[in-house]
Amino acid sequence: MGDRIELKAFCSDPEATAEAVKDLGAKESGALEERDTYFQVHRMPRGRLLLRRTEYQPARLIAYALANQPGIHRTAAVVAEVPATGADALAGVLAAANGVRAEVVKRRRTFLHKQTLTLFRGRTRTSRPSRQGGSAGGSDSTGRLVQA
After folding, report:
1. In contact, 95 and 83? CB cutoff 8 Å
2. Structural domains in the chain plus CATH codes
3. What does the DSSP assignment read for 66-89?
4. 9-25, pLDDT tens digit by residue?
5. Which of 103-107, 128-132, 141-145 shows the lowest per-residue confidence on average (mean pLDDT)?
6. Mean pLDDT of 30-52
7. pTM of this structure
8. Could you give the CA distance from residue 116 to residue 145 in angstroms, rounded to a whole number?
9. Neighbours of 103 (CB within 10 A)
10. Strand (E) or helix (H) holding 89
11. Are 135 and 129 in contact (CB under 8 A)?
12. Helix residue spans in 1-148 (DSSP H)
């Protein structure tokens, strides 16, 4: 189990902020697309269980608890790496056992400075399963409804 400090904040001008981060000495280390499938969690208050599938990397199954409040949070997480070839099968098993809460697809630009990793997330597409089992749409990073 590892701890990490996380601060999530809205950024109205990601390009200007990226330039400011570079001016402070951070190096851009690339961009990646992530697909996070969040599963229902019944035994852990404020618990999250997600399977993160990232381009060209092993998938990660991550369990953690998080306060639903803005600000800085210390998060203890349990992480298991999953070979990319088995990630979709694992997602199917977890969905059948627990149900899916949401699926989020996002593109992130990453910057590294010393031991600080800065991530800028572009528009996010979120879908939530409908009661009939299909996708019912969700919200993007601005909170507006999108069709899935």
Report:
1. no
2. 2-7+18-146 (2.40.320)
3. --SSSEEEEEEEEEEEE-HHHHHH
4. 777 888 888 898 899 99
5. 141-145
6. 89
7. 0.69
8. 33
9. 21
10. helix 84-98
11. yes
12. 14-23, 84-98
